[in-house]
Amino acid sequence: MAKPVNKIAHPFDKTRLEALLNRRFFYAPAFEIYGGVAGLYDYGPPGSSLQSNIISEWRKHFIVEEGMLELDTTIMTPAPVFETSGHVARFADWMVKDLKTGEVLRADHLVKNVLEARLAGDKEARGLAAQPQKDEDKKKKRKDKAKPTAVQLPDEVVAEYENILAQLDNFSGPELGELCRKHKITNPDTDNEVSEPQQFNLMFASSIGPTGQHPGFLRPETAQGHFLNFSRLLDFNNGRVPFASAQIGRSFRNEISPRAGLLRVREFTMAEIEHYVDPEDKTHERFGEVRDVVLDLLDRNVQVAGSTQVTKMSVGEAVDKGVIANETLGYFLARIYLFLTKIGINPRRLRFRQHMSNEMAHYATDCWDAEIENSTGWTECVGCADRAAYDLTVHSNKTGHPLVVRQALKEPIVTEKEAPEFNKKVLGKTFGKDAGTIQNIVNGMDEAALLRLKGELLQGTATITSSDGREFTLTPDLLTIERKTFKQSIREFTPNVIEPSFGLGRILYSLLEHSFWSREDDVERGVLSLPAVVAPTKVLIVPLSAKEEFSPLIREVSSKLRQAGVFSRVDDSNTSIGRRYARNDELGTPYGLTIDFASIQNRTMTLRERDTTDQLIGSIDEVITTVTELINGSIDWAEACRRLPEYDGTQAV
Length: 653
Ligand SMILES: Nc1ncnc2c1ncn2[C@@H]1O[C@H](COP(=O)(O)OP(=O)(O)OP(=O)(O)O)[C@@H](O)[C@H]1O
Known about the structure:
Layout: H1 14-23, E1 27-29, E2 41-43, H2 45-66, E3 69-71, E4 76-78, H3 79-85, H4 87-90, E5 92-97, E6 104-106, H5 107-125, H6 135-139, H7 155-166, H8 173-182, E7 198-201, E8 205-208, E9 214-218, H9 223-228, H10 230-236, E10 243-252, E11 267-277, H11 287-290, E12 294-298, H12 300-304, E13 311-314, H13 315-320, H14 327-342, E14 350-354, E15 366-374, E16 377-386, H15 390-399, E17 405-422, H16 424-431, H17 434-443, H18 447-459, E18 462-465, E19 471-474, E20 479-493, E21 496-503, H19 504-515, E22 516-519, E23 522-528, E24 539-543, H20 551-563, E25 568-570, H21 577-586, E26 591-595, H22 597-602, E27 604-609, E28 615-619, H23 620-632, H24 637-643
Parallel strand pairs: 3-10, 12-14, 24-25, 24-26
Antiparallel strand pairs: 1-2, 4-9, 5-6, 5-7, 8-9, 10-11, 11-21, 12-13, 14-15, 15-16, 16-21, 17-20, 18-19, 22-23, 26-27, 27-28
Helix pairs in contact: 5-7
GO biological process, one term: mitochondrial glycyl-tRNA aminoacylation
Domain Aminoacyl-transfer RNA synthetases class-II family profile: 175-543
Catalytic activity: 2 ATP + H(+) = P(1),P(4)-bis(5'-adenosyl) tetraphosphate + diphosphate
C-alpha cells in the first residue's frame, strides 16, 4: 500500500518555489540579457509543456465535451471595433502619481496594499500575527508591498478598513482619491503624497499600413473576434441557438505596474468562450448534470456588508434561490470548478465571487469571478459574465450588419395595429430630401402617437416635429393611417452572451503554488505534485547508468510508451538514481521507471510514484500497461499497488 503523503512537511515557502521555477526554467523574464521588461515573460521547456497540457485539457473539457465552435481570430484590430465595443472610452484603470518622484501606481492596488499592511501591523501589535516573517523574506523587500509596522488601530478603524477591502472593486476613481486623502495613504516606497487618480487606457495602440492613417490596437481580450463573426458562426450552426464559440490566444494589456510575476503581465494567453442564448430562455439542457456541484460562493450582498465569508451551496440551490442569475451561468460556474480542480487546483482555495453593482459592466446582468488563493491573496483567474445583448447590438448598430437570430415560430403571432401608408410620390415632391426624415419619424411612433396623428389627419392637417426641432405639416393626400392585421411567422432576436474568460498564466502559477511542497527529510529539494494530466513529462526512464548495454531496453520501453501515447524522457546522466529522481520531482514528473542489470536478465523494472516515493516491481509489459492506465486516469495508485508487488529493494530489478 502507498504510504500516506505528507505534503505539509514544511510550510509553503515562496522563495524556494521561485528559485525552483527559475532553476528549472519554467519561465523567466523576457529579454533578460537586455535588462528585461516588466510584465513580459518567456516560458521554458517545462513551463511551455505545462501550459500546453492545461490548454489541451481545456479543449477536451470545454470545446470537445460541449461541441463548441473553435475560432482563431486576429490580434491586431482596427480602432473602430474597440470604439464601438467601448474599450477606447472605458478599458482603463485608475492610476496615481507620486507627487515628488512621478512613480506611477495603480490606485486600487495602492489602497489595498497600504490598508492590508496597516491591518497586519495591528494584528502583530495585538499578538495575533500568524507567522513571524523569516529574515530572508524580510530582506527581500517587495517593491509593491507596504511593510507592516506593529501599530494597534482603534477597533472602529479596523472595521472600516476591512469594510473598504471587502468592496475595493466597487470604488470609482474619485472615490479612491477620497480614500487616499481620508486615510492618509501615501506611496509606501517613499512616503510621498500621491496625485488624484487619473484614468489610463490599457490597450497598446498601433497603426495598420504604411500611411499611419488606420489606427489599430493589440486586442486586450479575444472576445470581439467572436462577436464580429457571429453571423457566420450562426450559419455554421444551422441558424440555431444556443451554441458557443471558443478561442485560445494571446491578449495584451499595458498594465500600470506589473509586479506580481505571471499574475499580472502585459502579454498573456486567454481561453474564452462566448455562449449565445435566447434572452427569453436561459435554461441549460445539461444543467441537471452539475446541479449538485457545491461551490464556495461569495455573493455581492455579503461583500457590500463588509464581509468575505463564503457560503457553501450547490449550483442548483444557488440558481433556484436567484443567487446566480440563471441556469446557463450556473452551468458554466460548475464546469469551471470541475476543470480547475481536475488540473490540480486545491478546491479549498477556490471560491466564486460575485461582482458588486459598480464593479460590473453597465450592460451585464450578473458576473462571477473564479478566484484562486495564492501567496498574494485571492486572485481572479476566470471571469464569468452574462453580458446580455450588448456586444452584438453595438456592432450591429454601428455596421448595419444584422447580428440576430431568425427563428420560425411554431404558431404564427397575429396582431392588429395602426399602420401608416405614405404616398411617396407626393411626399417626395412636397418635401424633397426631408421625405425620408418624415417617414422615419412616423414609422418610429408608437400605437398611441399613431392614433393621435390619425385623428389629426381626419381633421385635415397634422404637425410632426423632427429631433432637431423642425416642424412638418402633413395632409391626408400625403399619408393615411389604417388598422391592419399582421401575421408574424418569424421571431427575430439578438441573443444574449454568457462569457467564461480564462487567464491561463494566473491559473498556471496558482497551480504551481498549490502543487509545491518539500519532503520532511530534504527541505532543499522541492516536489511539484502536478496531476499526471498536466505534468510536463509523464514518465522518467532511469537506467542505472549510461552504459551501452541498457540502450536496447531503453529504446524498447521508450517506444512502447510512445505507442501508448505516454510522453517520457530518459535521464541517463552521470549521477545517482536518487538525485535524478529528486530532480524530476522538481519538474513534477509523476512516475519513474528504473532499469537495472537485472532488467536485462529478468525483463522486470520498477515503477516509482513521485509523491510517496513508493516503488512497485513487475514485468516490463505489466509495468508499461499499469503506468499507461495511471496516466490516463483509468486506475489510481492504490489499484496499481493491488496489481504489482511492492519493491523492497531486495528483489532483482
Ligand atoms: N494583466 C494580466 N495578466 C495576466 N492575466 C490577466 C491579466 N488581466 C486579465 N487576466 C486574466 O484574464 C481573465 C479575464 O480578464 P478580465 O478582463 O475579466 O480581467 P480583469 O477583471 O481586468 O482582471 P484584473 O481586475 O485583475 O485586472 C482574468 O480572470 C485573468 O485570469
